[in-house]
């Protein structure tokens, strides 16, 4: 019965947004209340769950989203994004620009939380699309496929790293196997799949469109690259620092502070204010106006993402995820397939890849030990399942829809199918690997 209620709530959400044309933020709040009542959450607890869900989702993400929008807007207004687009196009040419985006997304995605990586690559995607009159989905989806793959498969990304610890797997072997699975997943879900989306109607947000003034006084190419990639560099350095062979490293607490995504973005925006703003002759008042406009442009995106967290929290507090996973424990399937299926169903019902992965890990671990399943492959199987079919209860779905400004139907057709391809190719790759590493 729990599964039926969850599926009905998801269907109701789609109907409110698509058929009734109700704002997604309001639709999430309405469905969250209905889901809470239907799933037996105490009436007094429902508002608290909604508030907690919004707060937990936006707690760290709102800083990243807002500062990322500011950085992206300044990259566009200063002409730095124009420089980045020119450099990539010159290096790879229009014929291979998709592969350039894939490689960039892959490199950026390994050290970054998914939300941070998404926000940072959007200005680059839009700049190339605007400047060279190329379809934004053609440019953007392969890059986002690479981000998704790193999010689900590759340590030291936080989600697979947590699974490595839970399953007592090897970080090195998981990374090695993950690379073998990741490459075909990216190729199929990225460059190959986008060929089927040529006629998709997209009206991307104007927030990152360069203005005429942007090309009058632009920063250099080196400055543009360094400023745009500073968040990535900081996170990579702070991630690698603890692995240096020295037990008495100085400044560990400082490095830990700097390595927090929100602090990284604060440092990056301070530097960008100087390198792309003050250094190019813009006054502080003009720069702050750019930042204010950027936040106004994404205000509704922030609200929608927060509201998606409200529904996720209601489903979690009601015990829906645990009940659904418990039902699946008795399914007679090979452990790797069962781990993937459990993560998939929890992901579809709850929306969060991280929650799906960690919930599955706690339930599948005893079975994995009994059957002597390779823990490194189980990390990848669960990671693949946790990426399956992102839809209306996933914050990533709404980030893609709102930034690319397309309909729910077309978001399902593009983003959701891409994520499903990543998860499907992932489990197929894991099962093939399992034949060779037994």
UniProtKB/TrEMBL annotation:
<comment type="similarity">
    <text>Belongs to the GntP permease family.</text>
</comment>
<feature type="transmembrane region" description="Helical">
    <location>
        <begin position="225"/>
        <end position="244"/>
    </location>
</feature>
<keyword id="KW-0472">Membrane</keyword>
<dbReference type="GO" id="GO:0005886">
    <property type="term" value="C:plasma membrane"/>
</dbReference>
<feature type="transmembrane region" description="Helical">
    <location>
        <begin position="174"/>
        <end position="193"/>
    </location>
</feature>
<dbReference type="Pfam" id="PF02447">
    <property type="entry name" value="GntP_permease"/>
</dbReference>
<feature type="transmembrane region" description="Helical">
    <location>
        <begin position="298"/>
        <end position="316"/>
    </location>
</feature>
<protein>
    <submittedName>
        <fullName>Gnt-I system high-affinity gluconate transporter</fullName>
    </submittedName>
</protein>
<keyword id="KW-0813">Transport</keyword>
<keyword id="KW-1133">Transmembrane helix</keyword>
<feature type="transmembrane region" description="Helical">
    <location>
        <begin position="377"/>
        <end position="400"/>
    </location>
</feature>
<feature type="transmembrane region" description="Helical">
    <location>
        <begin position="28"/>
        <end position="46"/>
    </location>
</feature>
<keyword id="KW-0812">Transmembrane</keyword>
<feature type="transmembrane region" description="Helical">
    <location>
        <begin position="336"/>
        <end position="365"/>
    </location>
</feature>
<feature type="transmembrane region" description="Helical">
    <location>
        <begin position="96"/>
        <end position="129"/>
    </location>
</feature>
<dbReference type="GO" id="GO:0015128">
    <property type="term" value="F:gluconate transmembrane transporter activity"/>
</dbReference>
<feature type="transmembrane region" description="Helical">
    <location>
        <begin position="256"/>
        <end position="277"/>
    </location>
</feature>
<feature type="transmembrane region" description="Helical">
    <location>
        <begin position="58"/>
        <end position="76"/>
    </location>
</feature>
<feature type="transmembrane region" description="Helical">
    <location>
        <begin position="136"/>
        <end position="154"/>
    </location>
</feature>
<dbReference type="InterPro" id="IPR003474">
    <property type="entry name" value="Glcn_transporter"/>
</dbReference>
<keyword id="KW-1003">Cell membrane</keyword>
<feature type="transmembrane region" description="Helical">
    <location>
        <begin position="420"/>
        <end position="437"/>
    </location>
</feature>
């Amino acid at each position: 019965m729990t599964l039926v209620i969850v599926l009905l709530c998801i269907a109701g959400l789609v109907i409110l947004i698509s058929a009734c044309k109700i704002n997604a933020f309001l639709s999430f709040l309405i469905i969250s209340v209905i889901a809470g009542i239907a799933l037996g959450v105490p009436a007094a607890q429902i508002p608290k769950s909604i508030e907690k869900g919004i707060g937990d989702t936006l707690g760290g993400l709102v800083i990243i989203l807002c500062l990322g929008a500011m950085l992206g807007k300044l990259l566009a207004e200063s002409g730095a994004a124009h420089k980045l687009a020119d450099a990539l196009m010159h290096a790879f040419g229009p014929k291979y620009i998709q592969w350039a985006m894939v490689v960039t997304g892959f490199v950026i995605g390994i050290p970054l939380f998914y939300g941070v990586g998404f926000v940072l690559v959007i200005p680059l995607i839009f700049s190339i699309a605007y400047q060279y009159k190329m379809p934004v989905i053609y440019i953007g989806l392969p890059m986002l496929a690479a981000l998704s793959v790193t999010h689900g498969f590759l340590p030291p990304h936080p989600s697979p790293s947590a699974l490595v610890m839970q399953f007592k797997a090897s970080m090195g072997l998981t990374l090695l196997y993950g690379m073998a699975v990741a490459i075909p997943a990216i190729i199929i879900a990225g460059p190959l799949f986008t060929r089927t989306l040529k006629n998709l109607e997209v009206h991307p947000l104007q927030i990152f469109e360069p203005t005429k003034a942007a090309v009058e006084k632009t920063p250099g190419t080196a400055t543009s690259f360094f400023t745009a990639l500073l968040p990535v560099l900081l996170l990579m350095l702070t991630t690698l620092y603890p692995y240096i062979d020295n037990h008495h490293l100085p400044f560990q607490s400082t490095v830990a502070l700097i390595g927090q995504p929100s602090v990284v973005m604060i440092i990056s925006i301070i530097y960008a204010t100087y390198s792309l703003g003050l250094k190019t002759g813009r006054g502080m008042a003009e720069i702050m106006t750019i930042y204010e406009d950027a936040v106004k442009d994404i205000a509704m995106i922030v609200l929608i993402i927060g509201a998606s967290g409200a529904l996720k929290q209601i489903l979690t507090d009601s015990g829906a995820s645990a009940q659904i996973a418990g039902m699946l424990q008795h399914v007679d399937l090979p452990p790797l397939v069962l781990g993937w299926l459990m993560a998939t169903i929890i992901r579809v019902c709850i929306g969060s890849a991280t929650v799906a992965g960690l919930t599955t890990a706690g339930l599948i671990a005893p079975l994995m030990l009994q059957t002597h399943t390779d823990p490194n492959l189980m990390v990848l199987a669960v990671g693949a399942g946790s990426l399956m079919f992102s839809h209306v209860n996933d914050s990533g779905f709404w980030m893609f829809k709102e930034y690319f400004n397309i309909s729910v139907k077309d978001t399902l057709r593009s983003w959701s199918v891409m994520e499903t391809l990543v998860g499907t190719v992932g489990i197929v790759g894991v099962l093939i690997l399992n034949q060779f590493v037994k």
